[in-house]
Amino acid sequence: MDMKTKNKYTILTVHELLYLISFSVLFIMKGVGIYEGMLAFNISIVVSFFCAGVAMLMADYTMPEFIGAAALLGCSFLAYFETGEKAVIAAVLTVIGMKNVSLERIMKLAFGIWTVCFYGMLFVHLVGWKEDIILAHNKFGLGFLLRRSLGFPHPNVLHISFIIWMALFLYVWKGTGKKLLKTTIILGIANIFMFFYSVSITGMGLGFIYLFCNYYFTLRKEFNNLERGLIKAVLPICILMCTIPPLFFEGRLFDLMNKLINNRMRIWKYYLTTFVPGIFGTAVYPLEGQQMSLDGSYLYLLYYYGWLFFIFFVGTTFWTICRCIKKGRKKELAIILGLSIAGIVEPFLYNFSAKNIILIFVGYEIF
Questions:
Q1: Beta carbons of 186 and 215 less than 8 angstroms apart
Q2: I want to staple 152 with a disulfide (CB 3.0 to 4.6 A). Which of 49, 113, 123, 158 is the partner?
Q3: pLDDT digits (tens, 9 = 90+) for 52-92
Q4: CA distance 138 to 259
């Protein structure tokens, strides 16, 4: 029988062990740069999904919970058959597998894995074992600037990976007061240093937004009504930001916004005006002769998962935000808000990047 404390389960059950293995396989896979098309990717998916499936069968769900979890998993396979997006299955398994899983344990595990993977990738690049990806982009009116990935698949991935590491570090680290202030300043400097390589203005900005949220929330003993309202408004605003401007902005304002977010407005408008999202997703395609990556987690969620899962994941994330406010779980709030804002312009929350640690909090609150 599990012995549940306030924050964690003291006994590591077979169910929890299998879930942690499932989570670790995907986290390590993406942490070391394994991507779709590689044999290692396919092997990792099979191992992870198998462990998650067995863990689900061993979990002590109530009957309503089991029916709900089974329905979600079944719908995820329908979405996969419609769009070919495997990430929807992984996202659902992450949420429903959190039944009786220690939040503290999985976050410490995630921090350990990401620390080894992130700095390991930097090391293998520095010693010349992994090639650097160098891109030349015309930015800031300074002409073409070189962007480096330092061994990661893309400079943007480098910076987002660093933000994930910061979030995991500040979550498991218990520092407060002056120690937290000093650490926040050091991480802010590191964020700038990372920008010199990635040249990702969005990545650097998102890093500072997260650091500000984490430090400010920690200072607040209790949120007032205005703060609660602003925090709850973040996720809806994020969704509106990637839907309203592409459809209704025109002329110079559209061009300015499009330039600020590196052509994403034009891509968002193409998808929003060309495809109708289905209940389990929609088969989408770029313009002929063009490569158009759907950068933006919320539109990615809408088109590749379908509006059923769009409602589910957005709704449960908003519900989790409300629960965290009520319980005073400020570290979780900072991570959810920081990553939610990042999701406006980056697809990592719902593509197969395995970096969406918000799903862990969602599953913890549901189960």
A1: no
A2: 158
A3: 999 999 999 999 999 999 999 999 999 999 999 999 999 99
A4: 11
Please tell me the pTM assigned to this model: 0.93
Pairwise CA distance, residues 261 & 256, whole Å:
9
153 phi/psi in degrees, rounded to 5: -65, -25
Find tokens 């929890």 and name the residue. Answer: 16
- C-alpha distances in angstroms, 21 versus 73, 80, 89? 19, 23, 16
- Give the pLDDT confidence of 211-246 residue by residue, as tens digits: 999 999 999 989 999 999 999 999 999 999 999 999
Q: What integer pLDDT is reported at residue 5 of this predicted model? A: 42
d(CA 61, CA 82): 29
3-state DSSP assignment of residue 4: strand
Q: What's the distance, CA 212 to chain centroid?
A: 18
Nearest to 357 by CA among 218, 210, 201, 185: 210
Question: Half-sphere exposure of 164 toward its Cβ, with a 13 Å CA cutoff?
Answer: 29
pLDDT, mean of residues 25-54: 92
Question: Cβ distance 311 to 167 under 8 Å?
Answer: no
The CA R_g of the chain, rounded to the nearest whole Å, is 20
Q: What average pLDDT does range 135-147 have in this prediction? A: 72
d(CA 215, CA 24): 29
Q: Which helix (H) or strand (E) holds 144?
A: strand 144-148
- Strand-pair category, 144-148 with 134-138: antiparallel
Listed residue (174, 169, 247, 250) closest to 210, CA to CA: 169
Nearest to 100 by CA among 6, 188, 4: 4
User: Average pLDDT over the chain, rounded to whole?
Assistant: 91
* pLDDT-based confidence at residue 175 (cuts at 50, 70, 90): confident
Tell me how far apart the alpha carbons of residues 291 and 293 are, in angstroms, rounded to a whole number.
6
pLDDT of residue 354: 87
